[in-house]
Amino acid sequence: MFGHHGARPYEKEAGQRLEVDLELEPLDNRAEASDRLGDAVDYDRLYQTVREVVEGKSFHLLESLAAATAESVLERFAVRRVKVRIAKQNLGWTTGGRAVIEVVRERKTEERTVGRAERGGAHRAERGAPRRVARGVARSVARRAERRG
Length: 149
Known about the structure:
two-stranded antiparallel sheet, five-stranded antiparallel β-sheet
């Protein structure tokens, strides 16, 4: 993804390519048991949510960008926990390398969330739900879209 983030004006002006990885822990094991797409996190919607934050907003710090991304995911999806990892190349460093920041946000156990329309209604977090990992979802969904058209 490409975003205009950074503490220095030239970083925001020029923009930079960012790698975004997500790890999700669903509220329940409904998708695992049913094997139905309607019971799972919709990765296309997830990609759009992440893209709205990364490409549509501007932050001074990657930490703030990662936190905003995590909060948006918790707001829109039936997940108990989300880990957002954002990496950028540090081309200004003479040694090269990259900077990586990781933020974790969890829904409170007693907190109720309105589920996606496909799930119909509210969901309560259940203990022991499996952990689903969606690494590089933004990249993989983008690659699929490129192959289709």
